[in-house]
Amino acid sequence: MSNRRSKKASETRSAILSAARQRFTDEGFEASLSSIVEDAGITKGALFHHFENKQALYYEVWRTLQQEMNRDTQAAAAEGRSPGDPYSAMLAGARRYLEWAARPDYQRIVLIDGRAALGRDWYEADFDLSQKSVRVGVQYLVQQGAIATENAASSAVILQGALNGAGVALSRQVPGVTFESIYNTIEHLLRKMS
């Protein structure tokens, strides 16, 4: 493939993903491929050249959002690290994740429609992506002596579950559940782990 063709293919793929992200944010998985194609300024043939079907397109948008969130939470954790508090980095990352959970695009694409749109693939991909990030934080806490080595794996699973549940609760606007109450509960839970 020539450089010009490669560049054009990359631009088309980016246009599709941008249009799909906006449509999936606004309409969820129910967004039509016709509307995505129209927004991207391409043909359906071009869309199917890049993505096998609507689920594959949705997965790519979902995966991209998850990767962006993961990079952002890791950066927040690194910035939030405080020598006097071994929990500070993990808590900064948790706070940033909760901020993502409050975003309309992340809420709709990842937290609300992701499970239904992606089925079993969602669980496997979500667990793998989330565990990688949470395990880094837990491993740091193990190195700091805040969590026992033998509790590291289960602590990572519990924290991931708590954060995922918190994100869903925030996206559904569960009565009595606020950003700060969730964050305070996560902090309490984390500081009690050993």
From TrEMBL:
Keyword match Transcription: yes
Keyword hit for DNA-binding: yes
Protein known as: Transcriptional regulator, TetR family
Pfam families: TetR_C_41, TetR_N
GO molecular function, one term: DNA-binding transcription factor activity
Keywords for this protein: DNA-binding, Transcription, Transcription regulation
All copies of domain HTH tetR-type, residue ranges: 10-69
Residue ranges crossing the lipid bilayer per the database entry: none
